[in-house]
Specification:
The complex is a heterodimer. By secondary structure, chain A is mostly beta strands. Chain A has helices spanning 21-27, 99-102; strands spanning 10-13, 17-20, 31-35, 51-58, 61-66, 76-79, 90-95, 117-125, 129-131, 136-141. In chain A, strands 4, 5, 7, 8 and 9 form a 5-stranded antiparallel beta sheet that branches. Chain B is α+β, with helices and mostly antiparallel strands. Helices cover 37% and strands 10% of the residues of chain B. Chain B has a 3-stranded antiparallel beta sheet with strand order 2-1-3. Chain B is globular. The chains are: A mainly beta, B alpha+beta.
Chain lengths: 145, 153
């Protein structure tokens, strides 16, 4: 079995110019994941990559661990948002942060964001906000360790 | 070029394209804080495929080294990421060996190192059908204090 490798510092389009491959490497998603609505499984989703496990810590309280760590604790993790028929209700997730122990959330102080995992809270926002079991689709951008 | 010579992320990309995902029925229930509900660790199916194929995942001590680095005061970013990519990868693991590896990787070590010390087991490996079948009272889930630790093992 062969595992090919192409080494190139630039990629050139026939008419649209050249881009350094570091932009491609650094700009690609480093993790894509989807959690089953009730938090009991990682779905085998299109493009899913770089997750080793899900920890279900309670209603809407989930942690995803990476196989290839991210280089620092300052990276971007985004979740999609789903409405419900004609109602504009949010069903999405946010990175967990403990304001009591860790103060204001900042670049290096998001409690749930480690280089090996991310803890997030799935929530529903209708007439009130509530922690809620729901499907979460997440994408991580950042540099790999 | 051999698989083990690739960057870990490239190995994962190769595995995604070439290996059949494996959905394990094993679950690991653990308690790392008495004031919080029991947590349930669920293996990723693509990760399981990598573990059982072999030649992809680094030894678990690599993750422990990186964790140590991250806990060092003043930590900014990893400088020993090469351990993930350049350490001889693990050989093929059985499903049970993969779960043991995952416990040591993704569960806090104060839980798995002392899982059977104290008044009751802090960690139990079970099959998913042994868990409550609904999410009702999810935030009140606890490991049964009367569980037989030999069963738990």
């Amino acid at each position: 079995m062969a595992y090919g490798k192409i080494v190139a510092d630039q990629i050139q389009h026939s008419s649209e110019g050249t881009v350094g491959t570091q932009y491609v490497v650094n700009g690609s998603a480093k993790c894509i994941f989807s959690v089953e609505y009730d938090g009991t499984a990682i779905n085998d989703t299109s493009g899913g990559i770089n997750t080793s496990s899900l920890t279900d810590s309670g209603t809407g309280d989930r942690t995803i661990s990476w196989t290839n760590n991210i280089s620092s604790r300052t990276y971007s993790c985004n979740f999609d948002n789903t409405g419900w028929t004609s109602d504009v209700y949010d069903r999405t997730a946010q990175i967990y942060h403990n304001f009591t122990t860790d103060g204001l959330a900042g670049m290096t102080t998001r409690t749930g964001m480690l280089t090996s995992s991310v803890r997030f809270i799935s929530f529903y926002e209708g007439s009130a906000r509530a922690i809620y079991d729901y499907d979460n689709f997440g994408v991580v951008h950042g540099d790999l360790a | 070029m051999e698989l083990k010579e690739l960057h870990l992320f490239d190995r994962l990309c190769w595995a995604k394209d070439n290996l059949e995902s494996y959905q394990s029925d094993y679950r690991v229930v653990f308690e790392d804080n008495v004031d919080e509900p029991a947590k349930v660790l669920v293996p990723d199916p693509n990760w399981m495929a990598c573990a059982m194929h072999g030649g992809i995942l680094p030894p678990v001590w690599v993750y422990h080294e990186l964790e140590k680095d991250e806990k060092t005061p003043g930590f900014k970013k990893h400088t020993r990421g090469y351990l993930l990519h350049e350490t001889e990868p693990m050989p093929p693991m059985s499903e049970e060996e993969a779960i043991e590896y995952l416990i040591m990787k993704d569960i806090p070590n104060h839980v798995w190192r002392t899982w059977n010390e104290g008044n009751k087991p802090k960690m139990v490996i079970c099959k998913k059908e042994q868990l409550p079948q609904t999410r009702e009272w999810r935030n009140a889930w606890k490991i049964d204090p009367n569980i037989n630790s030999k069963q738990a093992a």
